[in-house]
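General statements about sequence and structure are easier to judge against a single worked case. No coordinates are needed to read the tokens, only the vocabulary itself. The sequence in question and its structure tokens are set out directly beneath this paragraph.
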Amino acid sequence: INALPGEQWLGAVGIGTNRNSPNNIGVVPIRFNRNNIAAPQTLPLANGKSHKLALGGNSAHDRMFIDIPAGVTALNVVAQGNGSTQNNALKIELFREDFNSALSTPPFAQLPGGLAVLATASGSGGNGPAITLGGPVSPGRYFVRLSNTSSNPAAASVVATASSSASSLNPHRGPWEYDRRISQGTEWNRVGPNNFTLWYTYDESGQPTWFIASGPAVTGNIWTADLLYFTNDGNQQQGKRVGQITVSFISDDVMVFSYSMLGQSGFDPMHPLGPNTCPVISGSPKSYTGSWYRGVDGLGGATVMVFQSSQAQIHYLYDASGVPRWLLANQLNQPATAQVIPLLQFKGYCPTCNPATIANETVGTVSRTFTTQTSGSWTLNFTLDSPLVQSINRTDSIVKLSDALNCE
């Protein structure tokens, strides 16, 4: 946020028994007092979105970046302060780093030394600085260094906007995993005119959790959306915005996944977890791979992968406290026709946490039947391993949410 030292901001939190009565228990006032400004941290600039930050006197933030894939026709970076005096004191410098080096140190970004300044602009006449690069803009990571040349602190906002031409890429649809191979990743898919992603990751205690982002497909290879976190009160799920993500496609099988959520920011390159192929069953290819659910919101669903010689499912669901969790259904060398798959519960570490041991335990099974390429059923039978609590033995009719896969 762009609160300055000495300022107090006011807010409130409503507490309710369900989502239809969000404040019936009470409203708790919150006072935020800013005493100092922390050192700059990694800050992905989501395309076209405003990012607020505070700068101390005679200081700079040099860990902001936007990833520019092929097809970008222009890049515009604008900074604004709180009033003309702050605007006049702001300065932008723009740097470019090749993806080969920029993507080698996830999850945090740092402006490397030795890069030449591509462009610079200073605020003047009461207006903040602005830089525009004409196209085509060379692919790479573009760092924005924002400086406050005044001895007084400044409340600033930064917007980086990339304009793109139509994409020639056809990105992989389905599950992607981290290049770091830390047993987490995302499903990238579409339904009609919209793209969506299910992010399977871990919370700060190392337990599995998930987030969803969705929104209209856009021109080009950069997609930005709000990140939603869901809980369940036993009857209905409740979503809330906790941040935003940016997906930048460098190629059909290289994605850069950047995020800012719950006070943490980072990035990770990812690659597809499997091919876009379909199994041949009863003499014809079957497009089972995709996102499946019960047809109604509230009890989760699954990312499903079915290839000729293997299959897997990632089930997103809720524990007994209504907290989002996920389980992996997988067994090595299991053919596409097998109907019972073991369910594994994982424990790992959050994307920005220090590395820890990744472990898993078998906690049950899922039995599935596909009656068509868009309908079927599954039976979930599991008991979560401690410290999580949940036992489910339930059969659901299921439908495919995502568009059909064009089998390669």
